Amino acid sequence: MVATYVAVTLITLVLMCVYILGILSDNLYSEKRTALYSKANIISQTVSDMWDMRDENLMSLRIQDITERQLAGTNIRGVVTNTTYNVLYDNNSESNMRSKVFMRDVLKRALDGEQANSAFAADSGDTLTVSVPVEVSGEIVGGVYLAENVSSIGETVATIRTSLIVFCIVILFLSVLMSVGASYIFTQPISEFVEVAQAISRGDFSRRAKVQGLREIVQMGEALNMMCDELNALDEKRKHFVSDVSHELKTPMAAIKLLCDSLVQADAPDMATVREFLGDMSGEIDRLTRLIDKLLTLSRLDAANKLNPSRVNITALCGGVMRSLKKIADEKNIRLSFDAAENEIYNVVDYDKLYESVYNIAENAIKYTPSGGRVVTRLRANDRVCIIEVEDTGPGIPDEEKPKVFERFYRLDDSRARDTGGTGLGLAITREAILLHGGTIEVVDGEFGGSRFIIRLPMVKEEGDQS
């Protein structure tokens, strides 16, 4: 364990040093390069203003004066050439390159129109060079070449590297001492946590860790035990869910098999009987299809766990739901109404998921509201929240059943749900979609004895920016 701590610390320190030295070296070279470019561009601009002087000697003197003033007090070598690489000025008296050909790769690139730079190692030390073109009326007539010895940068980096090595050795020594002490404090309880985690991986959710020791260890133990409780509850829900799915799939399949067996065993059944049985079979298949579609929707919500947000007219969305359900409501003699603010309400949501959520709630309200009843959808919003309410005049939901209505396969009345084609998944899908939006959904008693479902969604000004 101690060796692991030391290895991690050592690797971290090495990476940190490499990063610091890399950033430092890059910054120092970048600053030097920028300074050289600045001087080169000033020389280029000033020289271009006098390039067309008829007296070449006078022009050379002026170029010399400009360059020397810019490079005064530095060890920068400056060379000015024309487009044929003939040197017009060179402040390095030892090289004596004036009127001679001076060719460098960066100078060639400058005469091609680039602002070029390069670095290389010379006998005198590391050297950084830059070159920029001299332009007159948009035409390149020459180039400025500057070179500076930057060995001091390497010396600075080497000095800092030595300091960092000493610092790392001290930190490593201290980390060894701390690791030895910490291993005695943390290793034993963590080993027990590992055993509990291994038991969980084998599906044994009954194991619990001892909660004792330092505050942090206690918090870890409590968190691990809480996770065990959650996993145990989730496992129970999974078993219950599998049982419910099996039951829900078995019921229509059993009905279809019974109808098929009845047809097979019947002696010369008349066509009316055959049509009746086939109609019943078609209804069971439709019910099975609806159930599978809902299961697939839930599976996609669980797997994707993401939205496709866009700016949506919520007023138009709710109005569209009401129009889609009007035929069903008219068949049951149920009056639909939509109460919305005068100004249209916009929000950033996933259109399809919100539409399906509102549709599921309103459709349920119509299904469970008796003939002659009423279903009201209300929409209002402020700067922080958008609220959608669907209220019906149906029989209502008992208080003790309200927390369960959003569970998968939950039905308040199984026989009535099957008569209306319910799968027990619509409200579960709605809840998952609303939670993905960061919203909430609840059911309370309606004003006229029915139920009122309330959706609250945070107002979002722009995509990805919740207000």
What would your notes on this structure say?
This protein has 467 residues and is α+β, with helices and mostly antiparallel strands. The chain folds into three domains: 2-155, PAS domain (Beta-Lactamase, 2-Layer Sandwich), CATH 3.30.450.20; 219-302, Helix Hairpins (Orthogonal Bundle); 306-466, Heat Shock Protein 90 (2-Layer Sandwich). The chain is 55% helix and 19% strand. The chain has ten helices and 14 strands. A five-stranded antiparallel sheet has the order 2-1-5-4-3. Mean pLDDT is 81; it is low at 414-421.
**Structural domains: how many:** 3
Order of helices and strands: HHEEHEEEHHHEHEEHEEHHEEEE
Strand order of the largest sheet: 2-1-5-4-3
CATH topology of the largest domain: Heat Shock Protein 90
Annotation field: number of helices: 10
Portion of residues within helices: 55-70%
Total number of β-strand segments? 14
Mean pLDDT: 81
Unreliable spans are 414-421
Gap between N and C termini: 47 Å
CATH secondary-structure class of the largest domain: Alpha Beta
